[in-house]
Amino acid sequence: MTKENDTLSLFDSHCHLNFSVFDKDRLQVLSQAEKAAVSHICIPATQQVEWPSLINESELLSQVSPVSIVTALGLHPWFISEHHPEHLNVLDTLLQQRPAGVVAIGETGLDFFDRNMTPQTKAKQLELFTGQVELACLHQMPLIIHGRKSHDDILKVLRRCKPERAGIIHGFSGSEQQAGEYLKLGFKLGFGGGITYPRARKTRHLAATAPIDSIVLETDAPDMPLNGYQGQRNEPGRVKLVAECLAELRGMSLPEVAEATSHNCRTLFRI
Ligand SMILES: [Zn+2]
Question: If you measure from the C-alpha of residue 8 to the centroid of ligand 1, how many angstroms do you get, rounded to a whole number?
């Protein structure tokens, strides 16, 4: 381990470490992450069935792992057929109990990428997303939001509900104008492996120029492989490569990027 790692502290704000693809070597993945200077990971849930085990197992894992683990509870738009409106009531009840380690609502959001989506599916996404934003207001929690071909619709809901603690727009790749609108609402932009691809010029420009206090790092592991790692399972330790890339894009040092982005996460999640 380099000396540099002793002072670095990175926060992977978005990692699906509870997915079964990590069942065989989860602890090893965490120890690799620690070697890559990762001190904190936030695991967002994607569907109701995950919530109880995510809360319990993350607490256990946190006790044996060198990396601190926090979680978010939410309903991801990709799993729309698994969601029922009453899951919002289940979430409300769970959040009232203030379960240990739960720091946000997510992963929620809207994904309108599929052009063949029925109006009913779109309406259901919107209903569940709005419900989760309302719960964020009610429980005063930040949100972790997934958006694809839907940023203007997301912004409409956020402007109407105005969640006080805002949150993170994860894996952001929208326009500069949309980014500006999110920042006005107090949201942070999550940047991950996407910025390591030279062809992602728009997103790289945004990552290079957005105020550093509005940026958090993420891997979205096991998804969103970095440039050079296509076809492989993504891992939380690679958030260091994202940080290095961001440092280069911004003309900052790696410790400066690590310090600022980790601070942003800790402030947002109040840890
Ligand atoms: Zn995700």
Answer: 24
